[in-house]
Amino acid sequence: MSKKRMDLTSGPVARTLFLFSLPVLGSNVLQSLNASINAMWIGHYLGEAALTAASNANLILFFLLGIVFGLSMANTILVGQAVGAKDTARAKRVAGTSYSFFALLSTLMAVIGYVFTPHILRAMDTPADAAPLAIAYLRVIFVAVPFMYLYNVLMMTLRGTGDSRTPFYFMLLSVFLDIGLNPLLIFGVGPFPQMGIAGSATATLLAQSLSLIAMLVYLKRHHYFLLPGKGEWHYLKPDPAVLRTLVLKGLPMGMQMLVISSSAIVMITLVNRHGSVVTAAFGVASQLWTYIQMPAMALGAGCSSMVAQNVGAKRWDRVAQVTRAGVGFNFVMTGVIVALLLLLDRAVLGLFFPQDAQALQIARHIDLVVAWSFVLFGVTFVLFSVVRATGAVMAPLVMLIISMWLVRIPVAMYFGRDYGAEAIWWSFPIASVMSLVMAVLYYRFGRWRSARMEVGPGAV
């Protein structure tokens, strides 16, 4: 395991950030590729209503993962700072508390979500022709939530220690299983039952659970130091100081994802009012946007881990270098993906729709309006990732609330009365510009450098 861990407190900053972020980017690519291939099966063989159902259900899944994002990010930062400070006992207590807490939280969310699935989709104004399909799909996803949560926190723990390669390998396994099982369970090939759209969700459930088990076995056999070994099971008993920090620092970070995902739910609710064709176009465009955002997400994860370890090692001189490298890489990587998408949009969208489909033309227009704004989003995300790694978690949350809920949604709703769906599309770049301006001002003049993420004396 030690060969896969990187020392993020020494060596060339740009090279270290790139090499650490590359497997994270690979994992993001695999996740998005998996979702896109699943959408292709659903869109081509089960119809636009089924694709609309999956789009609505996947927004709920994104919302659920948003809940866990902040807590797992707090775990990553705490682990990273402990590793940077060479405090192994504190790292183990942070990891053990996180494992236990996430197991309980995920089980609770799964039960509640399964019971209230129809009510959730009804509140989203899911089109009537897609609602039964969405219920069947989402209920299986809720069963998968505990495996997804534990899988996610384990991967984030590994990245906090400087290991981004092991999560990539097991993400590769998960995606391979999901892609392979999808057509078998959708159509009922061989001994597999024909489950329709529920088969796609079941493939995800099986892929996540089997990959989680395989990762745990692998880490145990390789004596991974943040899995409890002999005489170390007491680390799974939640430490009050660690749990307090996870919640107090993690909730604001999780709220950032919830602000994004909840605003996305409001946006698709607005889109749903324009019918299944427009919703299908928006759903596919959103799938493609995940690819555009992948470099920023990977660089943000890399920046968080690097800054956390350097803060723990008291190497503040490297923090500004990490920021400059992250922003520079984002402009190059995100810019290239946006350019390719806009140049090849008809061919790419043709993977989801027949060439003469009305939804394809709508999706092309949506991409033309929205895609370029993700370059700006990438800069914002990198800056947020840097300041969060020091413990400054409230300012990014406030800035997101302003840009998403006080700018994007009001623009879409107010101007939608005169311009229809066009107002929805333009609300995206307007909000991106606003969030970038606020992020740059805070990074330049804010007091984030004096923030701390401490677990208190009771943690070790």
Commentary on this structure:
It is found in: Cell inner membrane. Keywords: Cell membrane, Membrane, Transmembrane, Transmembrane helix, Transport. InterPro entries: MATE_fam, MdtK-like, Membrane_Transporter-Flippase. One of its GO terms (molecular function) is xenobiotic transmembrane transporter activity. The protein has 460 residues and is an all-alpha fold. The chain has one domain (11-447). It is 79% helix and 0% strand. The protein contains 15 helices and no strands. The protein has helices at 13-45, 48-84, 88-115, 117-123, 131-160, 165-187, 197-221, 240-272, 276-312, 319-343, 345-349, 358-370, 373-388, 394-419, 421-445. Helix 5 runs parallel beside helix 7 (197-221) and helix 9 packs parallel to helix 13 (373-388).
Question: What structural keywords apply?
Answer:
Multidrug export protein MepA, transport, antiporter activity, 0% strand, single chain, mainly alpha, 460 residues
Spell out the blueprint of helices and strands.
Layout: H1 13-45, H2 48-84, H3 88-115, H4 117-123, H5 131-160, H6 165-187, H7 197-221, H8 240-272, H9 276-312, H10 319-343, H11 345-349, H12 358-370, H13 373-388, H14 394-419, H15 421-445
User: What percentage of amino acids are in beta strands?
Assistant: under 5%
- What is the distance, rounded to the nearest whole angstrom, between the alpha carbons of the first and last residues? 24 Å
H/E element order: HHHHHHHHHHHHHHH
Could you tell me the mean pLDDT? 87
Query: What coarse outline follows from CA principal-axis ratios?
Result: globular
- Radius of gyration (CA) equals 21 Å
Structural class computed from helices and strand pairing:
mainly alpha
* Helix fraction bin: over 70%
* Major β-sheet profile: none
Taken together, the total number of domains comes to: 1
Can you tell me the residue ranges where pLDDT is under 50 for at least 5 consecutive residues? none
Number of helices: 15
Number of strands: 0
